[in-house]
Amino acid sequence: MPASSDVFSATLPSKDMPLTPESLSDGRTTPPSSRIHQLTTADPLTHTMGPKLLYYVLLKVHSIIQANIFDSIIVVGAHIRTSPALITDNEKADKPFNWQRPTATIISTPKNKTLQLNVFPGPAYVEHYAALLATYFASTAFRGTCIPPVYYQLPPSDASVTLFASSNLRHLGPVDIAIFGYVDSLHNSTGPGEWETGTDNGDVEPPLFAWKKRRLPNGRIVAFVGCTACYWGDIGGQLIQSLSELSGVREAIYVGKLGTLDARYVPNSILATGSSSKFLDGGIVKWRSVLERAVQGSTIVKEGVHCTVATSLCETKEWAQEWKTKADWVDPEIGHMALVSVEQGVSFGYLHVVSDNLSREGLEGLVDERKATIVADRKKLLHEVEVVLERYFKESRDD
């Protein structure tokens, strides 16, 4: 289990079991720390996703948890894909990147049966998955049943940097510009040919990263980098740090998706960009977007202020009402990526599909993403992303 200074708990108590350290000493599992923390537990009645919330959660809960009863569950930051860790049945392995989900390791003793959920090591991602489980067990399906206590242990803040350094990313080589996120959908920009991994294709476990490189006329190297795992939250910042340290990357562009707090915007119809991000604790990071000139003139790209959250489970209707006067966009990664970019001297920019609207109910959202109409709309948006990128590459050639 990774080292950590704190272990938190998200026990969901029944009416006659208040949340206290004493209530956890029930013969099942006692947390390694007496510090108790109430996790985010979302309610469909108050969350911006409304009735779709539980479907969103269910898609992410490990299949072994849905099929079995455990005495306790602990969420840790660890990337484990080999036995005895169990792969969940609901991985989206029909796409090349961002398909791996947390694995599960069953730990049994004569007195209890504990499940350890192995989440890619980022503090925000661990918190997010613990909140998903808290919300799952708080659903009406578990009323009247014995709910296992859920603990989580935060990994070191640089755990993913260490993991990336030992992964095949170290074989990427010198790169000037890194593009990451929806790179497998940027067919015109990446061009034909196979994705490289720098490793033997006969490996039993797929390499963590794959990439395609492109040399601009001025000699600068662009790498489109895909990852089989999700770099949720601060993991995104650790990825930029690793790209800077391992390959000398000086410009980074993130192409992904985010939510909007602006009621004017319809999901899957615009792209979002910006040059500032606010954190919930009051912090803010500002930078000069590397895409500042390239997005000018696009009627599809909208600029705004971004908000960085640890988990989408915190996005209640009350929260959205407060934050819609402070920010336009929201996601878990951008603020962390920008902050590390500033610290590392890396120029940064993002260009994201607006996937959902937190200020309007009834619109398309995160659980509708495989609908044919949404797939078609996003294809058009990603074509516009490529138009912007090609303009950016041309500016780079002309500099």
TrEMBL record:
Biological process according to GO:
nucleoside metabolic process
- Give the region (Disordered) as residue ranges: 1-37
What GO molecular-function term can you cite, just one? catalytic activity
Q: Which domain of life is it from?
A: Eukaryota
Q: Where is the composition biased (Polar residues)?
A: 1-12, 22-37
Q: What is this protein called?
A: Uncharacterized protein
Which organism does this record belong to? Lachnellula suecica
Q: Lineage, please? A: Eukaryota, Fungi, Dikarya, Ascomycota, Pezizomycotina
